Amino acid sequence: MVIRDKVDPDMPDIDMSAGTITIGDNLVVDRVGFGAMQLTGNQVWGEYPDRDGAVTLLRAAVDAGVTFIDTADVYGPHTNEILIRDALYPYPDNLVIATKGGFVRGGFDYSTLDSVGNPNYLRQCAHTSARRLNVDHIDLYYLHSGRATDAPFEDQVGALAGLREQGLIRNIGLSNVTVEQFRAARSIVEIAAVTAHYTVGVRTGADLLHAAAEAGAVFSPWHPITLTDGHNGGEVLAVIEPIAARHHATPHQIALAWQLQHSPATLPIPGTSSITHLKENLAAQAVPLTAEEVAAITALSTAD
Ligand SMILES: NC(=O)c1ccc[n+]([C@@H]2O[C@H](COP(=O)([O-])OP(=O)(O)OC[C@H]3O[C@@H](n4cnc5c(N)ncnc54)[C@H](OP(=O)(O)O)[C@@H]3O)[C@@H](O)[C@H]2O)c1
């Protein structure tokens, strides 16, 4: 599929040849989504300082072919969902917005995250996210964390299952959970997607990726284009930079191309506050890595 950016007529056609991926039974989205978390204040707290710029960026993303946006009630909190609504409502029919509940900001300066699993709280989170996004149902709703200890994990999943039954949630996802939690949740209700930290250098979610792929669930790596978040940052660059030079691409594009070509189950959600980077990220779908290049990047971590 080739889509022309309606915002910038000089932009070259974007080759969306990485295709589509299906969430649950019938939500079809393009393989590269958009992570909206960057469009908040410093340290994901408060409003994004350049509101008009953020609105322009979100509209440019949709115009350029983005059909999946990842947000959460705790981004801001709330400001990110409201920004998405203000920029994009009424939403295009093919746009899927995923949001999450279960984290609250804590600490003396609100810089830390605590997990809350109280089923009443989770139900309230989902309803208030739907109100902020101005939707009568949420296409994909993630439990943001598997670490809450104030309620049994099964009860947290049960709360989301109940909301799905009522029609408020169309598909259920799990964020930052263990493989054991993923399996336990699947024995309660269908899990359409999981999301976890998974980068070229640090593959925290590796086991989850494989469990998701085996179960037919989507795996959405977060921090998907981050290059140097581990102790092996130098090694990552030493492998990726020559590959980027060979493809006349940037190292970030190579990281994204690897995410796409390493597993057909992935739905990366790169975040950016830059229209130039947005276009580069979408264009990464058309970078054809060789099998040797994919293998060289995969070998950067013992977890694949
Ligand atoms: N479930 C969870 O617990 C969880 C946790 C973290 C994140 N997330 C989700 O994952 C999404 C992505 O994560 P992230 O935004 O933290 O990390 P990321 O997408 O890996 O990286 C974003 C960073 O890379 C830069 N960047 C983006 N495109 C670039 C390009 N083409 N070239 C060079 N630099 C580029 C951005 O800066 P510029 O703004 O300058 O482009 C930004 O600093 C978030 O937006 C959020 O939706 C989920």
Brief rundown of the structure:
The chain has 304 residues and is an alpha/beta fold. It has helices spanning 51-63, 79-88, 119-133, 153-166, 179-186, 206-215, 233-246, 251-262, 275-283, 291-298; strands at residues 2-3, 14-15, 20-23, 27-30, 34-35, 68-70, 96-101, 103-106, 112-115, 138-143, 169-175, 193-197, 218-222.
Q: Could you list some keywords that capture this structure?
A:
304 residues; two-stranded antiparallel ribbon; binds NADP nicotinamide-adenine-dinucleotide phosphate; TIM Barrel; 37% helix
Characterize the structure shown.
The chain is of the alpha/beta class. The chain has one domain (27-298): TIM Barrel. Helix content is 37%, strand content 18%. It has a 7-stranded parallel sheet. Strands 1-2 form a two-stranded antiparallel ribbon. A two-stranded antiparallel ribbon has the order 3-4. Bound molecules: NADP nicotinamide-adenine-dinucleotide phosphate. NADP nicotinamide-adenine-dinucleotide phosphate binds at residues 35-38, 70, 175-176, 195, 222-226, 250, 252, 269-274, 277, 280-281.
